[in-house]
Amino acid sequence: MTTRREVAQWLTASLAAAGLARARARDDAKEDAKADVVVVGAGAFGAWTAKALLDRGRRVVLIDAYGPGNSLSSSGDQSRISRSNYGANALYAEWAAKSREAWLALERRARTPVFVPSGVAAFDKAASREVAAALEVLRQLRIPIEQLSPGRAMQRFPQFHVEADETVLYEPHGGTLYARAALQALVADMRGPRFKYRLDAVRPPEVTQDLESIETASGARIAASEFVFACGPWLPKLFPQLLGRRIRSIRAEAYFLRIPPGSRLYEASAMPTWMDNCVPDAFGMPDLEARGCKVAVDVAEPPMDPDSGDRRPTAEFGDAVRAYVRRRIPGLADAPVAEARVCQYEMTPNEDYLLDRHPGALNVWIAGGGSGHGYKNGPMVGQYMAGLIERRVQPIAAFTFAAHPAE
Ligand SMILES: Cc1cc2nc3c(=O)[nH]c(=O)nc-3n(C[C@H](O)[C@H](O)[C@H](O)COP(=O)(O)OP(=O)(O)OC[C@H]3O[C@@H](n4cnc5c(N)ncnc54)[C@H](O)[C@@H]3O)c2cc1C
To answer: What pTM was computed for the model?
Structure first.
């Protein structure tokens, strides 16, 4: 039975806790009052934007509703491909090479695995114009690239079957990023008096003129001079009018296939990460963290709400992965599924990123539309956003609202 004394003790403890919470909120508000920039979203785009601003001496508050690299976010998967082979697109190729250096620097600073030097193989039709264009761009940028005939490719990477009319571009400096772990390491690395990370959800702002502050679900109001919204697939939920017809969130499923017991053939030292341009949006990674070989194939583009979408894997995607693996990786044709996970892409119609000022305010910025290839370029997106905010870089036409008309 509870005694009066126990009730009194409980009440005192509760009041003390409430007082502490109020004091903490006051402290938070005080620290936030000093912010130059609030960055909303600690995915690859937001976390690297915060880092670039911090490195330029800005006081930054980074806010995320679920945490950096959380399971719902696009950046929250186990792994992402880092490659410079972007066909004819020299800008993304260059950004990927520069970003790679930043990921490697993070790995050294954080002393945690970030980049797996697995190399990246790209399967293409030999006659594809993109192959010739990629070779040209990468040679100009002095990024190592090797073209392998089907026979040579299967000799070097016996995991794969390559058809006679296909070719393989192998990028030895390409690799695989530990997506979730790297972001958590990045945010942990941003310590210091000018940086504050908050776990909180920002309410959709009404942008009718320059923004003075944002409001969060916990009731905090945070003022700053500039605001960056890097909310990935949530962007259309925060700005339905502006982005509802510019960014689409669609479902993706990734499967981890069990490798044959005791086999070393699927380790990253023997098998490259790959992307398959002969099959729409198929890609995969070697066995990392003993989770199995990761394979994904996009079969359709069902819409996916990042908060409430059903994250149970479906037979439709699973069957497509099985059919694909039977053709491309015969040794895993019947490999059992060890794990599967559901994620979502945040696509723009032309698949270029959207990195621009909000058309309704001078101090509100949008960083999103990674379109299935944004993770690796997080470091350069961050540099570019910081440059835009400081009015030090010329906007790149491909990333502007003008290049992304509402569909
Ligand atoms: C299956 C799949 C495979 C991919 N493969 C590759 C690849 O191999 N290589 C590559 O480079 N890219 C790849 N991508 C794309 C890449 O993952 C994304 O482009 C990138 O991760 C997007 O990062 P982001 O920061 O824009 O969004 P996110 O990572 O989704 O981050 C947005 C953040 O905003 C937060 N947030 C949202 N709303 C609020 C709010 N109201 N208040 C506070 N916080 C909020 C979320 O919690 C989240 O953490 C792939 C994507 C998918 C889905």
So the answer is: 0.94
